[in-house]
Amino acid sequence: GINSMSNSDFTPVRSFLFTPANHPRRVEKVFEVGADAVILDLEDAVAVSEKPEARQCVVDAFSGRPDSPARHYVRVNSIDTPYCEEDIKACVGPWLQGVVLPKVESRSCVNHLERLLAAAEAEQGLPVGSLDLMPIIETAAGVESAKKIATADSRIKRFAFGGGDYTLDLNYEWHADEAVLAYARAKLSHAARLGNLEPPIDTVVLQIKDNERFLRSARQGKQFGFGGKLCIHPDQIALTHEVFTPSESEIAHARAVVSAFEAAEAAGSASIQLDGYFIDYPIVYKSQRILALAEKFLN
């Protein structure tokens, strides 16, 4: 139905903070900066010689923090590397909430990972299907396959978008206006909607000292229906929450819309004006969605 995105069982995640799994000092800090989810990275941030050791770091870091409010994710190496299967075997356990899979380009790549995950869950005595799988779409092939991936039966709750690899793949120039990302963002938000997934998670911003650029990027993502942001620096968490949490004025406006509409409806009318805006059902549903989101984040 039109209102299905504000399901009560939907637990929104605004911020996913990456940190290399094999940097103990940085791993220590990553739990204290208020991110909704922490992703310990075994992929790009970890040298080949350190990968086996880094897996144990993931288990130690997460199992040592059973009460952390942040969700626990690990980014494994892509399915076409010799490391992926061992990453899954070593890292899956009751301390983990999800797996981030980079460079996803096809349904078969997801199927393959789902089999590995199911085997590891069974091995650990976890219910099969209990771990979240978040694919990163970060190539032309991935963007074009997104609809197939989203609409197939799977444990995927949401996609993430990786702008760095995507612009590299296409030889695009990634400027602050992010015009070159519009097509991919639109494709991913359409795919997520068609698969009835949660809103996708927007790309990292590599300029870690440039808050303006980060906010601009986050607002673009939000405009395209994204629900949060991949972060690579603790300072980006507060900025992400600022953009992806309904503001006081948004909440006030949404309340005004809903109450004005309810009053009109009670009087037998289903279209009204408020502050010079024409209001009908889609506007009301959007307002209800904002209020539902506010309730989840601000309670």
Notes on the protein architecture:
- There is one protein chain.
- The chain has 299 residues and is α/β, with parallel strands linked by helices.
- 46% of the residues lie in helices and 13% in strands.
- The chain contains eleven helices and ten strands.
- The protein has helices at 24-30, 51-63, 84-91, 107-124, 140-151, 163-170, 182-194, 211-223, 235-244, 248-266, 281-298, and strands at residues 15-20, 37-41, 71-75, 98-101, 132-137, 160-161, 201-202, 228-231, 272-274, 277-279.
- The strands form two sheets. The chain has an eight-stranded parallel beta sheet with strand order 6-5-4-3-2-1-8-7. A two-stranded antiparallel sheet has the order 9-10.
- Strand 2 (37-41), helix 2 (51-63) and strand 3 (71-75) form a beta-alpha-beta unit.
- Helix 10 (248-266) crosses helix 11.
- The two termini are 26 Å apart.
- The model is unreliable at 1-8 (pLDDT under 50).
Regions with little confidence, pLDDT below 50 for 5+ residues: 1-8
Shape: globular
Helix content: 40-55%
Q: Helix count? A: 11
Strand order of the largest sheet: 6-5-4-3-2-1-8-7
Largest sheet: 8 strands, parallel
Encode the helix/strand succession as letters. EHEHEHEHEHEHHEHEHHEEH
Strand coverage percent: 5-15%
The chain-level structural class is alpha/beta
Number of strands: 10
Evaluate the radius of gyration: 20 Å
Distance between the termini: 26 Å
